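SEQUENCE AND FOLD
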Amino acid sequence: MNPLAPPLRLAEAAGVLSLATDLAMGQPLEHGLRTAMLALRTAQAMGLPQDDQVTVYYTGLLHFAGCTAESEIDARFFGDEMTARPRMLTVAHGSRLELIATAMRTAHQDSAPLARAAMMIKTAFGGIAEFRKWAASHCDVARLLGTRMGLSAQVQQALRHLYERWDGNGMPGDLRGTQIPLAVRLMQVAQDADVAWQYGGRASTRRRSGPSCPWGTVPTRAWTRPQSGPTRWPPSRARNPK
């Protein structure tokens, strides 16, 4: 170890973990960093206190931190979970009909039609319970990582509720609306904005709305995806609030 090297910053360690979880979720590198930056910009535009901005930043950066906790559930339901995960993320805050339709199109694509139908029927029984278990495990792992990294109780609380939805139909479904931590709501908006941008640019981003994700509750000037360079790594290190 170089004794002259500066100590590793918490934001740098969290950033490295975020890059690894982007790969695990089949997302382009720096999706987590972009989500954190968009959520942070929104928090700043809303005039949130510094401590709340820190919570928003780390919630965005670590929102996939527990993503591999129950990978066997994804693999059993979809077959190729690495192909399925980015596709399902596009409808994560959509209607139940969108979720079901996308899952049906995505699952076991390499199998024959009758085999696909049989596997879907087999996994459908108890499917909601399995995905509730998946969401709970994901959030528990993310929270434990946050604890070990010394993150605040507010960040740990936010990481417990990553999959709740504004309409109350999230996972595990304990919270709805303003009961959901503000950091989680801002993270969801930022995540949805980045995913929408990947598939359709500004127009697609502005079209994304619905009962599960409160787009109308945040300043739209914060939605624009950062365009300062090919990577978000240096700006995110410089602008993180702690």
Remarks:
- The chain has eleven helices and no strands.
